[in-house]
Amino acid sequence: MLHADNSLQSTLGGLYMIAKFIIQSLLWWGAGIRCNGTNPWDPQISDDRFYRRFLLHGSIGLGESYTEGWWGCRELDMFFYRFLHSGLTDLMPRFGVLRIKAREFLEALKSQQNKTYSRQGAEQHYELDPRLFFAFLGRYNNYSCLRWNGVSTIDEAEEQKMRHIFRKAQVQPEQRMLDIGCGWGGTLAYAAETEGVTGIGLTISDSQVAHACKTYGHLPLEFRNQDYNDFNEKVDVVISVGMIEHVGWRHYHRFFQKIRDSLPPDGLAVVQGIVDLTGRQTRDPWIDKYIWPGGMFLDMKRVHEAAEGVLYILDEEYSGEDYDKTLMAWRARLEQHREFIVTTFGREEYLKYYYLFSATAGGFRAGRMTVGQFVLSPSDLRGTYKSVRLPL
Known about the structure:
The chain is α/β, with parallel strands linked by helices. It is built from 15 helices and 9 strands. The chain has helices at residues 2-31, 49-67, 76-86, 95-108, 115-124, 130-134, 154-168, 186-195, 206-216, 252-262, 285-290, 300-307, 320-336, 338-345, 347-365, and strands at 44-45, 71-72, 176-180, 198-203, 221-225, 237-241, 268-276, 312-318, 369-377. α3 crosses α15 and α14 crosses α15. Residues 95-106 and 108-113 have low confidence and may be disordered.
């Protein structure tokens, strides 16, 4: 029995050594990253089980081993920039991606959009205690890419981003605005305060509706726990910021139809979402498992195909560098509130969001994704619509 135990330990030890050699070699030769090296982007490994977990489980193993404290890095965003820019991630095991693909296939067999699954994503993420999010977001709790043209604080960047959207949508006083995926209500509230609009905000999160109603109940706004598919009213203008990633490409067409049906013939809509630049049309398995189940970056070819015959795309603007800055600003504020977050939600929750912001900032910096903002209309206004760019 003792001999068998020694043989098993010897075999496992050999496997760990092989995994360590492979990971160290790939990182060094592929991305100039040296495990336990002296550069600020070099990961410091405190548990050798990291190598086997990373090798066998790819993205999920990398993220899980970080939140479990098996490794750390002084400049985690730079680690991910170098790692993702090198293309090494495309060589890692794709088991998590295969799991996602299998689930998408099963969803595609259904004739209706899987609202239950959409709610699962909301319950896992957006139904968390809002104090967690408010610890790193700005005054209006914009949980999407901000704009940083000549400003330096999160609050200023939030306001610049919202004003930019309103100018693109040509918002006028007393218009009725629909915000699809309104979050905690900040953007719609800012529109009411600064532009004089009334409006309706849709979300499928009870927590977000409760916060929006409590915080902005004095404004001429209505916040609903309602799926956009079930909205059947007319408004003057539509905005949807950071929600289309949860729609899924199979439902882009239906999403655009709902926007068209909500607008007057010459009405405008502004939609913002993260755009995939890799051509892989997948999502990160760790983020899918622990942050946003079902979320998917935009495939612009499919966006254009889905909009054809439904809405005219009048303008497109891309600003990935702004999301890099946004994520780093959120991470800095997260660090400022570390003690509160760790005490209230646990160390692993703090590490999860620190990792999320660092990894995605590195992804934008490496050019693997960007942020797209699109102006749409039921009518062909391409000859008369004037594009809006910063500075305003």
